[in-house]
UniProtKB/TrEMBL annotation, chains A, B:
Main localization category: membrane
Protein name: EF-hand domain-containing protein
Sorted UniProt keywords: Calcium, Ion channel, Ion transport, Membrane, Transmembrane, Transmembrane helix, Transport
Transmembrane as UniProt keyword: yes
Transmembrane parts of this sequence: 69-87, 99-119, 125-145, 185-205, 211-229, 241-262
Length: 349, 349
């Protein structure tokens, strides 16, 4: 069965025929065959078998769509607004318009800003606030953060496109650059967004809420960090209309900022590790450990698995799981899968 | 050079000699050689070459130690406490003891609870609060969360040990169980911790702050979510001493709770994907794409790489990076690394 293909020693070396052993080594595996055009999937033009190519692809693919998250947010706000509107007489503090106050209270609660300029007074209103702060936190943590990440990624592409407009580089190369420096670009995008939001918030607080510039900035800081002492807050009708949109965006922005900061930190550490793993000297013990099929030599694929394990990108459980499947597919038990194995497997079915 | 080892076809199949092709297939790669006792590193008894075995191992190894995080926290609190003590006359609200209030204000600010029972009044005090809330957030996000994760993992081991005390299972098997259900156990541990903290907080608020049970629970909810409306807060000396420890622990606990919830969600999705990748039918096109060294058949290692890529655990960049290193090591360009390659590489140096 597979024995004839196992005998084909020539193809393995065929690519090397024209190369000599020199001090400057050329690349032999110029384009690994196992990468079926992985750049293409950025534009959704990818129709192939390999559904999830990138390392973060699982995240990206399972991420709730922006539309889905918006819809959920609207439903959440409508429910919250209705509930708090119904108990509006049991909420005390500075009031403007009934519905606006309910919406504002809902936003201030779900983002955990909690100024305290409006506070629930009755038992039902208090329990309602408890329910909404927990569900709001879960909603922000599990949905809105991911939706924001998606938006930032879109913005990031626009940003890089704008930067590259003059230098005529191909889209493919541009996408490669984004892929390589994804986290850095995201971080940059979020910093810009934060600066815009902080400035906007300060201006509105000065112009509309008539605060002095220091108080306005202090209120902005207290809000975006969700601190919300409540000594300064939005008390006018227009201020609260603005606050509804601004609080939600700016608090999520700052949370994403810290997330990307942690990601950058992590990535730099991982790069250090990868460098260490790749440059350290291989020993005979390593060689023996990496030799998956016990043939006395380490093939390219075996080497890759061994090194990726050392880098912590995959673990033994992952490998064991796939190995089990491999043994099922290797019907003739030759230690390799060939076309005949596939045919055999189908005929068994 | 490596040609003699390439001719050794027998060793590849040697393990299969005693097996027949049957309907029930036995495992051939019983214990993959590339796993050098990965269970051992739980107890730090691991001294070997493979520094980072688990999938989260990079995280685990680079995580700041608990002692380091505690030290940083103490420094942060001393600095914060000193600063706020110095501006204590510029902070208005319910006051008890000078130093205690400064510490309490520092904790309420860094965790972004921000009751507003103590608020900065002067410009310097306001700017100081802004500085401390940002640095506090960064500190909690980048350090304390990870330290908490470390603590939870320790607790988790104790928990499983306690459960397994009666059934006499080996430590190794127990560790395997923890590894497999790591996130679930963490989640369970944090839920227990949260319940204890919520109960404790409610009791103290009833007994010390003389709140009724509903108000106490409402204040607990408003605090652990960092909402902090501030209509109910800690105003007695003993209440604030308790609050200093309790607020820090409970807010971090709730944040970890949501983190683990998201991790569980992610893991379940990944398991679905892994199942899909493993059960879908291999085609001739897959076979060709997976054949890394162009020898017409897919070896076990090649199959593992192809499938792990499909699962999104590794990507082409990872593989390409290691392949480059492989080519450097394969001095005789045989397509495999053998002992002679290693010797040759050393003699070149």
């Amino acid at each position: 069965m597979a024995d004839d293909s196992a005998n084909k020693k020539q193809p393995l070396l065929s690519g090397l025929a024209d190369q000599n052993i020199g001090t400057v080594k050329k690349r032999r595996f110029r384009r690994c065959k196992t990468t079926p055009a992985s750049d293409a999937d950025f534009f959704g033009s990818y129709k192939g078998r390999e559904l999830f190519p990138g390392s973060n692809s699982i995240l990206r693919n399972f991420r709730p769509s922006f539309r889905q998250a918006s819809l959920l947010l609207i439903i959440y706000l409508i429910v919250g607004c209705t509930c708090f509107y119904l108990v509006r007489d049991q909420i005390v503090g500075k009031k403007t318009n009934g519905i606006l106050d309910a919406l504002y209270f809902c936003i201030v609660t779900m983002t955990t800003v909690g100024y305290g300029d409006l506070v629930p007074e009755s038992v039902p209103a208090k329990l309602l606030a408890c329910a909404f702060v927990f569900s709001g936190m879960a909603f922000v943590a599990l949905f809105l953060g991911k939706a924001a990440d998606y938006l930032v990624e879109k913005q990031e592409v626009l940003l890089v496109k704008a930067v590259h407009l003059r230098r005529k580089v191909g889209t493919r190369q541009m996408m490669k650059e984004i892929e390589a420096k994804r986290v850095e670009y995201k971080f940059f995008t979020i910093v810009v967004a934060l600066l815009v939001l902080v400035t906007l918030g300060t201006i509105i607080l000065v112009k509309v809420e008539k605060l002095n510039i220091i108080d306005a900035f202090y209120c902005v800081c207290a809000t975006i960090t969700t601190l919300g002492y409540g000594d300064k807050s939005f008390s006018t009708t227009f201020g609260r209309v603005f606050a509804v949109f601004w609080i939600l965006t700016s608090t999520i922005c700052l949370a994403q900022f810290f997330l990307y900061l942690a990601e950058i930190q992590m990535e730099h550490r991982q790069q250090t590790l990868v460098k260490w793993v790749l440059t350290r000297r291989m020993t005979v013990v390593d060689l023996e450990a990496a030799d998956l099929d016990d043939d006395g030599v380490v093939s390219a694929a075996e080497f890759v698995i061994y090194k990726l394990k050392e880098m912590g990108k995959i673990n033994q459980e992952d490998v064991a799981l796939v190995m089990e499947e491999f043994e099922n597919l290797d019907v003739d038990q030759s230690g390799t899968i060939s076309n005949s194995d596939l045919l055999l497997a189908q005929s068994v079915e």
